[in-house]
Design brief:
Length: 343
């Protein structure tokens, strides 16, 4: 990345640390900061490990369902490289280029790389729809916010799936040939339209490959995707209920600990600052301060953020940080001649 991007990332992380310190200072328990017992941390580590492994399994199984020979170790590096790059780039924009580069360096051809990444996103959105539907049934009647939160996450996944459907429709008509008038009207000239066309052709090929995929392996991949989402939102309930055994475990107390992290994970993607720039910490305090016991709230925030964000940076940096940084280097592209406009 350029020095400007590193500066933005550094400022964003400084805001994150400052917001965390502000929230913790405002919720500091009278008896001092509680140290969570080691079984709590062990359970959280198991959850993080399971989340990463099921996500890597999803990628490998979906690739092999389409006859792409992807090793589990490569799928694991794809996950971790994306996590690392997403954490240090605005709106997680570095995730896909980093995953693409790891696949390229493993020897996967260009068409297969696009297909693997397309399937990863497609299964993620489908599993989110399923998880949100199940949660809507489980937590029905647990407050007016339940419907809003589920609508937020469900709407996000539906929007992404809808954008994919629109892209597939365009790929049937505009994958070749000159730029249509509407493309030039929105600024898609010359090289930009060629990039769009390459993307549309790749999307069309991906959908065609999906039609001939092995249904059994694709079902396994979908199951891994659902499990990965479940493990992702299990961290906070584990920290709270194991960290304070006196806190009653009921559907009413469980609902906000599951629904709000889900909304923060997938709703936080709209925040342009790397890592959220303190938005996640501030939203956590605003939405969950009344749902978590006061004596453990500060510890819950700090350790939840560690196990769902900072730990991924550490692991991702060690496993695939070099590839992620190479993918984020600016590449100069030569100017292209203007394209003719179709009538």
């Amino acid at each position: 990345m350029s020095w400007r991007r590193w500066l933005v990332t550094g400022l964003s992380f400084a805001l994150m640390f400052g917001t965390s310190a502000w929230v913790v200072s405002g919720h500091w328990p009278a008896q001092g900061m509680p140290w969570l017992a080691w079984p709590v941390h062990a359970a959280a580590l198991v959850t993080v490990t399971a989340e990463v492994l099921t996500r890597a399994f999803k990628i490998q199984a979906s690739a092999r369902a389409c006859a792409i020979p992807l090793a589990f170790g490569t799928a694991l590096r794809v996950c971790l490289a994306g996590d690392f790059a997403a954490a240090i780039t605005p709106a997680r924009s570095g995730a896909e280029p980093s995953r693409f580069l790891v696949l390229a360096e493993s020897g996967t051809n260009a068409a297969s790389r696009v297909l693997v990444l397309f399937l990863e996103l497609f299964l993620e959105m489908c599993s989110l729809v399923v998880v949100c539907t199940v949660l809507a049934v489980l937590f029905r009647g647990r407050g007016a916010s339940v419907g809003g939160l589920l609508a937020l996450v469900g709407g996000y996944s539906t929007f992404v799936l809808g954008a994919g459907a629109a892209g597939w429709f365009l790929s049937q008509r505009n994958a070749h040939g000159p730029a249509p008038r509407w493309a030039t009207a929105v600024g898609l000239h010359a090289g930009r339209w060629r990039v769009v066309q390459r993307t549309l052709r790749s999307l069309r090929d991906a959908v065609q490959s999906l039609r001939t995929a092995n249904p059994w392996r694709m079902s396994l991949a979908f199951g891994g995707s659902v499990l990965h989402v479940c493990f992702k939102v299990a961290t906070l309930p584990i920290l709270v209920f194991l960290g304070d055994p006196s806190f009653p475990f009921t559907m009413d107390t469980l609902a906000p600990l599951v629904l709000w992290p889900l909304a923060l994970f997938y709703g936080g993607v709209v925040v342009p600052a790397p890592g959220g720039g303190g938005f996640i910490e501030g939203a956590f305090a605003a939405t969950l301060s009344s749902a978590i016991p006061a004596g453990i709230f500060a510890a819950a925030l700090l350790w939840w953020r560690f196990y769902t964000f900072y730990l991924y940076i550490l692991i991702g940096g060690l496993a695939a940080g070099d590839a992620a940084l190479r993918a984020l280097r600016p590449v100069a592209t030569p100017p292209s001649a203007p394209l003719p406009v179709s009538t």
